[in-house]
Amino acid sequence: MAEAKRYEYLSLLERTGHISGLTMQVEFVLIPKQTKEDGGCERAVKYKADFVYSNGTTGVVVEDVKGFITKDYIIKRKLMLEKHGITIREIK
User: Fold this and answer.
1) What predicted TM-score, i.e. pTM, was given to this entire model?
2) What residues form DSSP beta bridges with 20?
3) Distance CA 2, CA 55 (A)
């Protein structure tokens, strides 16, 4: 519900020219797939952002609408900053 409301608001901002390039469910690779010595592999670790857009002043904005924050999310948030230099904007 909160994500749908946020989408409506961001869509309005895009239509009025305040933001551009609004996309949803954008995946970022945090740790690439790794091959093990035995020939198996470890899947890549990814973060899927709720919204990504450009606001014209600070550049690309990555947003996540959160009802509550999990331990997995905290790790992925830290990896986004470490690997991509992106601070996730959290909408509650």
Assistant:
1) 0.86
2) 54
3) 21
